[in-house]
Write a structure and sequence with these properties.
Radius of gyration: 28 Å
Oligomer: single chain
Number of strands: 23
Distance between the termini: 40 Å
């Protein structure tokens, strides 16, 4: 980024500070840089911008937290307001009339709520704590009623926006048939109409960005507007101003997504340069967009959307300029080099962000972009033309819709075919991404090195250093956990997911978390990220205690993202959705499914596993409750022992009274009154009790009587609803170390 305009450095410093949101160890890196380079260097201005951004982000965070402080978790809610975004599958956004008058996430149970209409929403408040310690609230709505005679009405621009989106959605439903959902995502930023399987295919093929409103789509809109204005004979400056106004109108109608807003600010910078007869530099326009987003919406800066759109755009601009200056001169240079450079730049620059936020890097992003981008670029104008012609009743809407539908069919079929290819995604943990990035940058910091003169040699040295730093870092982290057995209760809400790491770094998983209301999947959002972040590339086994949704709901996501040696379970199913999906995924991935009965045992890295329940007689009775089938596992590593109870009740516990004292008890059935009897607690006398339970759950878990029994026995209680993800590490001599997320 040598020669980058000052506004870009200002934006980088300010946005970094806004992302930090408060003073943290990142500031420590600024002090040695400042001392090394001197007060006259750019380091001083970067540090000052970082401080300003950090103060701005912290102030915004405090103001948002003040709005949530008065909300009690689990309290009944009744609010009025209007929805600014509506979703049948995920969260809708409600602007409430009272309190802070802010935006609240709402999960509605009866389909998508109405847009831009005064409504009364009743439900329950829930508080969610993020890994950084901040708290957000959301509303689980039991009813959404439109207020016909309300005194207050949503602003006119919200009503106009809702009317335009509604008419456009109806036009797409009429004209594009099966591809209406994809078309809505392309031009209206509405994702509900796209099946989850198709989203997964686009993600695996590295082309998911084509279905999200981004700078690419805004660029297509700008090109269309410019062409239309050129046909009217307007002078260049008038055309530029018209393009900027049209782009902003479009971005506001679709809800101002982060990437689209970034593109709109860049368009404004270019238009301003045209009006002033001083063309704007692309990196300067990017800096302006970063700065405006960080100032006006500091809460988005720490998110994946902002970081992906900024890094991807920077990669395209930098790599295109570099490649065009080094590409051999020939007749097709002008149309071959730019798309290849853009694809390489976007892929390389966004890879660390994808690894950090999502734990994976798609390998086919370049070829899929080269294949699909021309199709999407051709389809978007057709979709827009279809909407306009249908709304205005212009003849030919059916023809335009049929052509667009054909192009989108080709897009989805190609993405699905690419997504089905093996080895399309590399799983990378945030730690590995940091090590690779540090290793790649390290050679570039060496001044006057011989490899700095030739780009190819410089790239090779960076690649070697990145791999060397990755190997050294992974070896150090691996050695740090050697010799201990780790048992971790992953915070999956109201469900179970227990991860075990053996003394030699191999992993097992007991249950996979719930899949619940609104399509939420703890296996995908909690279990897989946790395992990826700790370098788990393979599970020796997944032990499924029983098929209930709160234990088996996330199984399919786990098996789809991490290889497993086997699934071990009771062998029965009551037809539960998550269990059946996990069974189908196991068949697809050729993962064997084995039945567990009392007496089974195996050893991994010196850790002994024994199945204590179900006994063979109970395992053959499919008429019993699923909880009665619970697989109970005894784990022993020297003097360190554990009992993993699943949802086993007191009747099963009565047969385990001879197991003796244990170190760790995974409390059965989330602390329900049907489990953890007084006789059982006295018999096993656990030192630690892990309770995997959701905050303010509707079942009242854990039961106060159960907590009382454990407390009376001197057991230290660890709960995921209070402590987040909790883990116990034990050595062969019985010594224990406890770690809590909060």
């Amino acid at each position: 980024m040598r020669g980058a305009p000052p506004i870009l450095w200002t934006a980088v410093g300010f946005a970094s500070g806004a992302a930090a949101g408060t003073f943290n160890p990142l500031l420590l890196f600024g002090v040695p840089i400042l001392l090394w380079r001197g007060p006259g260097s750019r380091a001083l201005s970067l540090l000052l911008c970082f401080l300003a951004g950090s103060a701005w982000g912290a102030a915004d965070r405090r103001s948002r937290e003040q709005c949530t402080a008065a909300v009690k978790d689990g309290a009944e809610a009744s609010v009025t307001g209007y929805f600014t975004s509506s979703s049948a599958e995920g969260a809708s956004t409600l602007r409430v009339d009272s309190g802070c008058g802010g935006l609240v996430r709402v999960y509605a149970r009866d389909g998508a709520p109405p847009l831009a209409r005064q409504v009364s929403v009743a439900g329950t408040w829930f508080r969610s704590q993020r890994p950084d310690g901040s708290v957000s609230i959301y509303l689980s709505a039991t009813s959404v009623e439109e207020l016909k005679d309300a005194e207050r009405r949503p602003p006119w621009h919200q009503r106009l926006r809702a009317a335009i989106r509604g008419r456009a959605s109806e036009a797409l439903e009429r004209r594009l048939g099966t591809q209406a959902g994809v078309a809505s995502a392309l031009v209206l930023a509405e994702r509900d109409g796209i099946p989850r399987e198709l989203w997964d295919a686009f993600a695996r093929s590295g082309s998911a960005h084509l279905l999200s409103i981004s700078g690419f789509h805004v660029g297509v809109i700008a090109a269309l507007l410019g062409g239309l204005l050129a046909l009217t004979g307007q002078p260049p400056r008038t055309r530029a101003a018209g393009v900027a106004a049209g782009v902003w109108a479009y971005v506001l109608v679709i809800g101002a997504p982060t990437s689209a807003t970034r593109a709109a600010w860049m368009t404004s910078a270019f238009v301003l340069g045209r009006l002033r007869h001083t063309p704007a530099r692309p990196l300067g326009a990017l800096g302006l967009s970063m700065l405006m987003l960080a100032v006006l919406r500091p809460e988005v800066v720490a998110g994946a959307g902002f970081q992906l759109t900024v890094s991807g755009t920077a990669g395209i601009l930098i790599m295109t300029r570099w490649m065009m200056s080094h590409w051999p001169a020939h007749r097709g240079r002008g149309w071959i080099a730019p798309p290849i450079a853009a694809g390489i730049g976007a892929s390389v620059f966004t890879a660390p962000v994808l690894a950090y936020h999502f734990g994976q890097i798609p390998l086919l992003s370049l070829p899929s972009s080269l294949l699909l981008t021309p199709l999407v670029a051709t389809a978007v104008p057709g979709v827009i033309a279809t909407i306009v012609m249908d709304i205005l009743h212009i003849p030919g809407a059916a023809v335009a819709g049929a052509g667009s539908e054909g192009l989108l069919l080709a897009v989805t079929a190609t993405a699905a075919a690419l997504g089905d290819l093996p080895w399309t995604v590399v799983l990378v943990t945030p730690r590995e991404a940091a090590l690779l990035t540090a290793g790649a940058i390290l050679p570039l910091l060496v001044a006057n090195a011989p490899w700095r003169t030739r780009p190819a040699v410089r790239a090779g040295v960076s690649a070697v250093c990145a791999l060397a730093v990755l190997w050294a870092g992974q070896a150090a982290f691996s050695l740090a956990g050697r010799g201990t057995l780790q048992i971790v209760a992953i915070d999956v809400g109201q469900g179970d997911a227990i991860a075990l790491r053996t003394p030699r770094g191999r992993w097992l998983l007991v249950d996979a978390g719930p899949r619940g209301f609104g399509g939420s999947d703890a296996g995908l959002t909690r279990v897989v990220p946790y395992l990826h972040a700790r370098g788990a590339r393979r599970l020796e086994a997944v032990i499924l205690t029983h098929p209930d949704e709160d234990h088996a709901g996330g199984l399919a996501a786990v098996l789809g993202n991490i290889s497993a040696g086997a699934v071990i379970g009771p062998g029965f199913s009551g037809g539960q959705t998550g269990h059946m999906a996990g069974l189908a995924e196991a068949r697809r991935a050729n993962v064997p499914w084995r039945r567990a009965v009392a007496g089974d045992s195996w050893t991994v890295d010196g850790v002994e596993f024994r199945v204590l329940s179900p006994v063979p007689a109970d395992a053959s009775d499919a008429t019993r409750s699923p909880n009665d089938w619970s697989v109970v596992v005894h784990v022993a590593f020297g003097r360190f022992t554990a009992l993993l109870m699943g949802d086993a009740d007191a009747e099963i516990e009565a047969g385990l009274l001879d197991e003796g004292d244990i170190t760790v008890l995974k409390v059965g059935h989330h602390g329900s009154s049907t489990s953890t009897s007084a006789d059982f607690v006295r018999a096993v006398s656990p030192d630690y009790a892990l309770i995997s339970v959701g905050s303010r759950n509707r079942y009242g878990h854990p039961d106060p009587a159960v907590l009382g029994r454990l407390d009376e026995s001197g057991t230290r209680i660890l709960r995921t609803d209070l402590h987040g993800t909790v883990g116990v590490s034990g050595r062969r001599d019985g010594t224990v170390e406890v770690r809590r997320a909060r």
